[in-house]
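Priority: low. Protein: Cytochrome P450. Input follows.
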Amino acid sequence: MLVPLLLLLLLFLSPFLFLRLKLSRNKSKLNLPPSPPGLPIVGNLHQLGSLPHRSLKDLSSKYGPLMFMHLGHSPTLVVSSAEITRDIIKNHDIVFSNRPKTTAGDVLLYGSKDIGFSSYGEYWREARKTCVLGLLSNKKVQSLHYVKEEEVAIMINKIRSSCLSRGSVNLAEMLQTVTNNIVSRSVLGRRVEEESTAGGKSNKFGELSKRLLIQLGSISFRDLFPSFGWLDVVTGHIGRLKATTREFDALFDQVIEEHRISAMSHEDNDQSDKKDLVYALLKLQKDGKLGIELTQDNLKALLLDMFTGGTQTTATTVEWAMAELAKNPKLLKKAQEEVRRVVKNKSSINMDDVDQMHYLKCVIKESLRLHPAGTISFPRETSTSVNLGGYDIPAKTIVYMNVWAIQRDPKVWDRAEEFLPERFINSTIDFNGQHFDFIPFGTGRRFCPGKLFGKVAAEYLLANLLYWFDWKLPGGAVDANLDMTEEYGLAVTKKHPLILMPTLYSP
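Result:
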C-alpha cells in the first residue's frame, strides 16, 4: 500500500525534484557501487516487491553483490555475497555497527532502548550483557530446560489427541503456541493464558507477538521522507503502533510489579538459576552495578526483545524444517531413524539425547540456510564514510545484508536451491557468524545474542515431533506439491500454515 501512495505523491512533489537532482550531482563525485535506475523521489522502492529478499537477489545478479540504492530519502547499500560481508566484519565492523532510527523502533521499543534497534555504544553493550546474564547464557539456557520439557510435553499430548481422532493438525499454530509459552515462562515466569472465544481458544498473546513482529518490520513515511512524517498519523500507522504498545504495557507493568512484590517477600530464597528474566533485570536494577540506568521503559524494551527474538523465529524455523522433511519422505525417515535409535524406548527426550542427534542438527542448519527467519538482516548504518571493495560508501548509509541470497549463492553452495542436510555432515560450519556464507543469526558485533536459546529450543522441538509421530500430508496429497510460498515480515513465514496428519509411533 505504501508504494502506490508514494507514487501518487510525485504529482505534488515536483518542486523537490530540483533539489534532489542538485544533491545527486554532488554525490556523483563519489565512486559509488552500481545502482539500478530509480524513480524521482521514491528511488528504488518500487523494485522491492512483496518479497524483497528475492527481488534484491534478482537485482544483484545484474548489478553485482554490492548495490547502491535509494529507498526514498535514504541512501542504501545492499550486500549479497559472503566475500563482501567478510570484508565488512573483518575490516570495518565498528563503522557498520550502528542502527538507523526507525519510527516502529521508537514507538514500540520505548525510543529504541532494546538491544536489536538501539544505537551502537555503551548503552547497547550494557543492555546486551544484561540479557545474556539474565536469560541467554549457556548456564541459564540449561537451567531453564525444564520449561521446554513441560511445554513440549503439553504439545505432544495435544497431537496424541489428534491421532486418536485421526485428524490433521495445524503444526504452525501448535509451534507458535508452544514457543510463546516457553518464552513467556522463561522471560515473565508464567504462561500467558489463552482466551476463550466463540470458535474455541484464541492465543491472544501469540497474535499480539505476531503483530509486533509485523509492525517492527513495517516502513513508515517518516523513515523514508522525514518531511512527510505527518502522513504516518493521517494513515493511522502511528495509532496502530501505539495501540500495540499499550497492550504490551498493560501486561509488562503488571508482571514487573508482581515480581517486585514477590522479590521483596522472598529475598532470602535466591535460586537465581531457576528465575526468569524479569527477576534478573530487577536484581540488576536494584544492585545498580550496570553502567546504564534501567528505567521501567528500559526493562520493557528488553523484555520485548526477547519476545521478538524467541517466539516467531523459533516456531518458523521448526515449521520450515518439518515442511522440507514432509516434501522429502526419505530424508524424514532418515531423521526419524536417528532420533529413535538415540532415544530407544525412553519415555522422554533429554538434551544429552539431542546432543547425539547429528543428522537432526544438520536438518536444522539446512532449514536455516534455505529459510533464515530474517531473510534480510536488521538494517545497519555507517557511522562514517568508508571505502568498501574499491567503492565510496557515504556516512549515514543504511546497510542491508541479503542473508537469503548469501546462503543460496551457487558459487558457494552445491545444488544451492535443494534441501540437502547431508551437506553439513562432517562440516565445521556453525551458527557463530564466522562462516560468512552461513549467517542466519547475523555476524559481527550485532550478532544475535539469543542464538543459543533459539537453537536449543528448535532442536528439542524437532526431536520430539520426529520421535513420537509419523507424518504425512492430509488427503493423500503428493509430497512434492506442498505449497512453500513465503509471507514477508521481520520473520519470513510460510504463507499457508503447515497442516500435517500425525500417526502415533509405538516404540
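The chain is about 50% helix and 10% strand. The longest helix spans residues 237-265.
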